[in-house]
Design brief:
- The chain is of the alpha+beta class.
- The protein folds into 2 domains: about 10-65 and about 100-175 and about 280-355, FAD/NAD(P)-binding domain, CATH 3.50.50.60; about 80-95 and about 180-275 and about 360-405, D-Amino Acid Oxidase, Chain A, domain 2 (2-Layer Sandwich), CATH 3.30.9.
- The chain has helices at about 20-30, 55-65, 65-75, 100-115, 160-170, 245-255, 255-265, 310-325, 330-355, 355-360, 365-375, 375-385, 400-405, and strands at about 10-15, 35-40, 50-55, 75-85, 90-100, 120, 125-130, 135-140, 145-155, 180-185, 195-200, 210-215, 220-225, 230-235, 235-240, 265-270, 275, 285-290, 290-295.
- The strands form 3 sheets. Strands 3, 4, 5, 10, 11, 12, 13, 16 and 17 form a 9-stranded mixed beta sheet that branches. Strands 1, 2, 6, 7, 8, 9, 18 and 19 form an 8-stranded mixed beta sheet that branches.
- Helix 6 packs across helix 7 (about 255-265) and helix 11 packs across helix 12.
- The longest helix has 25 residues, at about 330-355.
Length: about 400
């Protein structure tokens, strides 16, 4: 909630209290800076997401000191089940769990507050404050009133929506990289039959996939989405092809028996909700003088899997590290350090961009399932993709496909 009198200035203003913003605010406050963390919603609040926590997320949560707290709340699962168009599947082991973002984000916000960050909600970002070309704060709106907060640095963590990116001068492509639709279904009777993160590829879901993730309390996150392959280019600008996500979701439930059974025998907890995705560290400038973008602002979601929580946390921590290290240096050194950190991550995103061709060509999933069921080596490679010790792109190049067929 907002205090009667809002602060006028701070060292760092972090706009957006999702995983990237909260991680950044926690690290900055722990480093001794005066940090204001603002969000347009009061907490706890819902966030459209698949809610799956894969190994990179667990690693980042450990760095933030909240892994045990999250683990106590989350649903632990042992495998990702990859289901091909013909119905076959292969189970890939990994460090995995599921926790709704409403709970996860609240854990991360409280951790930032414990570190010393001040949370102000609800405040919506309207525009940066400028001195020449440098950002020196932000204009924020609370109900019918606006408020200006000056800051040495502004960190924009407002997610995939293009409006805040455009207002901040970072947006290079208004069209998102992908879109997804998800809902929650309570069906305790299926708790024993759906114990994995289930990902389903099929020609009727071409361009993406469907999923079922078991959450705590007999609740399941079920959804469908497209990542990357439905974006075409015209005159150098991204354009989204016609997408009927609700029909795609209905197709998923019709073609995949566990999804049909889950929905038919379950209770909907709220309505289906959709959200855009920004992937592969593309579509936006990463920084400008006085401002750093983090999380989905800079495209922190993997194109192949649609997973973005772990890398959002990492970008937030990279931004905090750059600001803390550059306190006594020239401003340009902060931006250079942060963008160098993102460039260090970029090859991983590029590999997942290559791997995302399976979403456009679902028969590749059948090939991976067929070989994975017969080869412990292939299963280890798939597990390595989850753990980020193996190159996901190699599986889906022509050379990789040849290896899958004959090795």
């Amino acid at each position: 909630m907002l205090p009667p009198t809002l602060p006028q200035a701070c060292d760092v203003l972090v706009v957006g209290a999702g995983p990237a913003g909260s991680a950044c605010a926690q690290a900055l406050a722990a480093g001794g800076l005066d940090v204001l963390l603002v969000d347009q919603h009061d907490f706890p609040r819902d966030k459209v997401c698949g809610d799956g926590l894969i190994p990179d997320t667990h690693a980042a949560l450990r760095r933030l000191g909240v892994h045990e707290e999250v683990a106590a709340l989350a649903m632990h699962v042992a495998h990702v089940r990859c289901v091909g168009p013909r119905g076959g599947h292969v189970d890939v082991p990994g460090t995995l769990s599921v926790l709704p973002r409403k709970t996860l984000d609240h854990v991360l916000v409280r951790a930032a507050q414990r570190a010393g960050a001040r949370l102000l909600t609800p405040l919506r970002f309207e525009a940066p404050l400028l001195e020449g070309e440098r950002v020196v704060g932000a204009r924020l709106r609370a109900a019918a009133a606006t408020h200006e907060i000056a800051a040495r640095w502004v960190v924009l963590a407002t997610g995939a929506a293009s409006g805040p990116l455009s207002a901040a001068g970072l947006c290079q492509r208004h069209t998102p990289s992908g879109v997804a639709l998800r809902g929650y279904v309570k069906n305790a009777a299926m708790g024993s039959s759906i114990r994995q993160l289930q990902l389903v590829w099929h020609p009727r879901l071409r361009g993406g996939y469907g999923w079922i993730f078991p959450a705590p309390g007999g609740v399941f996150n079920i959804g469908a989405g497209l990542t990357g392959s439905h974006i075409t280019q015209r005159n150098g600008k991204g354009r989204m092809q016609d997408v009927n996500l609700r029909r795609m979701f209905e197709d998923f439930c019709a073609l995949y028996a566990p999804a049909a059974e889950l929905v038919a025998g379950g209770e909907w907890l709220g309505e289906l909700k959709g959200a855009p995705l920004r992937c592969s560290l593309q579509g936006a400038r990463w920084s400008r003088p006085g401002l750093l973008g983090v999380g989905e602002v800079v495209g922190s979601t993997y194109a192949f899997s649609g997973e973005g929580i772990g890398k959002a946390l990492e970008t937030g921590l990279l931004a905090a590290q750059a600001v803390l290290a550059g306190r006594s240096q020239a401003e340009a050194s902060v931006r250079e350090a942060y963008e160098a950190g993102l460039r260090g991550l970029k090859p991983k995103f590029d590999l997942y961009e290559t791997a995302s061709r399976v979403n456009q060509h679902p028969w590749l999933a059948d090939l991976v399932v067929w070989r994975g069921k017969r080869s412990a080596r292939i299963r280890r490679r798939l597990a390595g993709v989850l753990e980020e010790t193996q190159n996901p792109g190699r599986l889906f190049t022509w050379r990789g496909i040849t290896k899958l067929l004959f090795e």
